[in-house]
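Work Package 3 (structural annotation) set out to generate three-dimensional models for the target panel prioritized at the project kickoff. During this period the team completed the workflow that converts sequence records into discrete structure tokens, so that structures can be stored uniformly alongside our sequence database. As a representative example, we reproduce one entry of 281 residues exactly as it appears in the project archive.
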Amino acid sequence: MTPPISADCLPPDDFSLGLVASDIDGTLLLDWKPISTTTIDAIHRCQDAGIPFVLVTGRPIRWLAPIAEQIPDLGRVVCLNGAVVYDIASDSVVDAHSIDSDTLAEITAAIMAEHPEARFAYETLTGGFIDREFVTRRSREARVIDDVSELHGQQVVKVLVRLDTSDSQAMHDLLDPLVEGTCHASFSEPDNGLVELAPAGITKAKTLSELCDHLGVARSQVMAFGDMPNDIEMLSWAGHGVAMGNALGSVKEIAAAVTEEVDEDGVARYLDAVLDARARR
């Protein structure tokens, strides 16, 4: 039997939980498996207590369908690393931040000048586009283009970059100086060789903050869960940031607490412990 979450890992007694924000991949589920019944029950327990549960993910809209099927009563989702707010119930985009055509041409040219081997993929509000030589496991979901100019008129909300390495941290360190000021660079897996570029100034934390303002929830009332570097701003911003047991060391270092790994229902176990403690007060 898995031991209970230690009281030392829980938020202080004066923490007032007003909203839970959670990453998806590596946090709520692993390797595209369904969300566990235990985790879904914990999400519903939050909702039943009047506490909104908000997904904050790097996934594009089209990859949210399996989540909506399992938890159709979720409301707004912050997706594409903060570039888009999408409402599951109405299947509609509530808000979007895009990269304009001139900036898109500027950043791709700057990267290609230093790394001619670079290949790109582009997420828009109408679907995905990829360079002809961009390697992806889901190529059938994207339209192939030969030049970035073919995206004129599209709302590009995220750019993905590949180089000749699978080390995402090393890629980030190479690309971040090239796009600083024009995009926000991050990555969501350490060894898939992908760096993700969001519109300038846009992070999970920035858009979650705006959503909390809309809902009337203070920053100090937010509990956030995550596992990868694209979650760092969100966990640092939240009143109580929780890293998964499977999180990278850089994420654990900035978190207020660490829960169990995703395949041990770390989010559910931590939430249940917090809600149990709340009920005893």
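The radius of gyration is 19 Å.
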